[in-house]
Amino acid sequence: MVDLQGQYHKMQNEIDQAVLQSIRNAAFINGPEVKLFQKKLEDFTGSNYVIPCANGTDALQIALMALNLSFGDEVIVPAFTYVATAEVIALLGLIPVMVDVDARTFNIDPAQIEKAITSKTRAIVPVHLFGQCSDMKPIMQLAEKYKLWVIEDNAQSLGSEYTFKNGVTRKTGAIGHIGCTSFFPTKNLGCYGDGGAITTDNEDLAIKLRMIANHGQKVKYHHSVIGCNSRLDTVQASVLNVKLNYLSEHLEARRKAANSYTEALKDWPFAHIPETNDNVLHTYNQYTLIVKNGYRNELKAFLAEREIPTMIYYPLPLYRQEAFKRYAGNGYFLTNTEDLCQSVLSIPIHTELNEEIQSHIISKILEFNPQ
Ligand SMILES: *Cc1c(COP(=O)(O)O)cnc(C)c1O
Questions:
Q1: Which pTM was predicted?
Q2: pLDDT in tens, 138-187
Q3: Which residues in the chain come in under a pLDDT of 70?
Q4: 178 in helix, strand or coil?
Q5: Residue 240 shares a structural domain with residue 276
Q6: Which of 2, 249, 314, 332 has a CA 20 to 30 Å removed from the CA of 320?
Q7: Cα(359) to centroid of ligand 1, in Å?
Q8: Centre of ligand 1 from the C-alpha of residue 155, in Å
């Protein structure tokens, strides 16, 4: 599905040097590399403030902790997402309210958000799934109308963009009140372990987020709020400082590979290719097909026999996960989410997918002909 070794080889000298230097400096906690990365990511995202942290899940948790929410408050999330989005909500004693997604884009459906808003709703967490920005214009309008916070789960979409009707283009993570991203190795900007970051334009929030990520202290050993210990590792920051220089190139490689798949598969009768809205720049962290007529598992097995790896993101709606049973008491059944869980199949896409490998993958897919 990915080729992290191939990607490393192309940057090997720079990365080796950066890592070695950070080890020699021995400033392992909050070293200068972390500060530098913070600055570089602020420039890249166009956000006023970046708060580096330990991983994308922590980023979401810290974001929620900064909003003064109360036990039992409701937070709206898409039902079709990775567990981390809803997990941190439940962990903080808040209620994840799961809503259906747009069957075309896989992203949360703004019309469904409005239906789910109650007097207890405090926040919306749109997830920019697979590299595509959620429809942020109506989401921000709802947030304004109902006085809700918007936390973007940007773990899969760093570098993606959204253009508003007035022509203004913003990077994902810099649209809502807070953005959360992950540097898990397979994300758009991956480090060599775990890492994450929070983005915001709001200075008060930035101060609070930074404090929460650091044991609730602004001044050492003076703790004003309950926080946690969530730091971006200095060695990881040294890797990210190199890799961020290549991010635009890497995103372009993903988009090029996606275009080749789309060109080859757009008329293929057994699957729908992923659709994008016109006003987004999709960065294809995943290239996800919607396989028709119940052939998903058959296609997956067919490709596995031909040594083509595929993944099912995600096989279950959040509300069908055992861990979330207690939140599913009111009989969730979200049609698009249910259908997607039965039909999605992600095929290999990454920064090192050359034409030869990709032609091979495409030719194997096209051989599939169920009777
Ligand atoms: C990866 C991911 C996360 C969590 O990021 P980690 O760094 O693995 O904690 C959260 N949300 C989504 C949608 C993700 O894909």
A1: 0.97
A2: 999 999 999 999 999 999 999 999 999 999 999 999 999 999 999 999 99
A3: 330
A4: strand
A5: no
A6: 2
A7: 30
A8: 5
Cα 313 to ligand 1 centroid, rounded to whole Å: 13
How is residue 136 written in tokens?
Answer: 């942020």
| Token pair of 123 as six digits | 């926040």
What is the pLDDT at residue 174?
97
Q: How many domains does the chain have?
A: 2
Residues with CB under 6 A from ligand 1: 55-57, 81-82, 84-85, 127, 153, 155-156, 182, 184, 194, 196
Predicted confidence at residue 71, as pLDDT, reads 96
Q: Where residue 271 sits, what CATH number does that domain have?
A: 3.90.1150.10
* Domain containing residue 235: CATH number: 3.40.640.10
Q: For position 330, what pLDDT does the model report? A: 64
**Angle (CA) 245 250 255, round 5°:** 145
Q: Which of 244, 279, 296 is a domain's end point?
A: 244
Do 60 and 153 touch, CB atoms closer than 8 A? yes
Mutate to test the pocket of ligand 1, among 153, 233, 346 (most ligand atoms within 8 A of CB): 153
Is residue 292 among the annotated active site residues?
A: no
Q: What is the pLDDT of residue 262?
A: 98
Q: One of 39, 115, 137, 187 is an active-site residue; which one?
A: 187
**Ligand 1 atom with minimal separation from the 128 CA:** 13
C-alpha span between 53 and 42 (Å, rounded): 14
* Structure confidence at residue 328 (pLDDT): 81
Query: Token match 């039902």: residue?
Result: 79
